[in-house]
């Protein structure tokens, strides 16, 4: 691990469960000397990525907030998707959620709330389980066989626990069914009493760059018109894909 990578890995230590860290704890976690740890921290504080508190401990800094604002403002999927998701939530009365995959991490990047005011455990920026829920499945379903085989070999235990197969062939076959359907309906997979209907947001190829989902209490989902929800979801996902592609085009 390079010095830069090790320094930046400090940012991953700050979580909801552990929002502040002392210099000594950071150095112990990294396995580095105190002088090296101080050098890393000085750089991170100087760049605004960390903030030094009065008691000498550290928390995430103001630069993180600025970067989040910039990302919301310039990311094509977010810029195009936010008004369409507000419209989708107004039409359906459901929460609408955009989800992206980054390497092997699934992360919700935006959410528009419906009237139920759902309190979801996974919000913007918090990594989600890779194999639970509708959004991950529709994203994974568009991946080539070689990529899925590598994922299976790396995460076989988690895949089996999620009920997605006990062999690479079974895992790929399950996802092929989802790809053929073009959507996935989950019920209580990620959170009890909560379901979702998800469709892929396709990029310029057949690969998904994200997913769009309607998140609904299961008690409501059972009585809703799934075909109508899918029609609205697919229309919104298609518009997001089309408009975002224009932003990626060379100027």
UniProtKB/TrEMBL annotation:
InterPro entries on file: GAF-like_dom_sf, HTH_MetabolicPath_Reg, Tscrpt_reg_IclR_C, Tscrpt_reg_IclR_N, WH-like_DNA-bd_sf, WH_DNA-bd_sf
BP GO terms, sorted: negative regulation of DNA-templated transcription
Protein name: Pectin degradation repressor protein kdgR
UniProtKB keywords: DNA-binding, Membrane, Transcription, Transcription regulation, Transmembrane, Transmembrane helix
Record GO terms (molecular function): DNA binding; DNA-binding transcription factor activity
Source organism (scientific name): Pandoraea pnomenusa
Record keyword Transcription present: yes
Alphabetical list of Pfam families matching this protein: HTH_IclR (PF09339), IclR_C (PF01614)
Residues that span the membrane, as ranges: 194-218
Gene: kdgR_3
Keyword Transferase belongs to the record: no
All residue ranges annotated as the IclR-ED domain in the record: 63-246
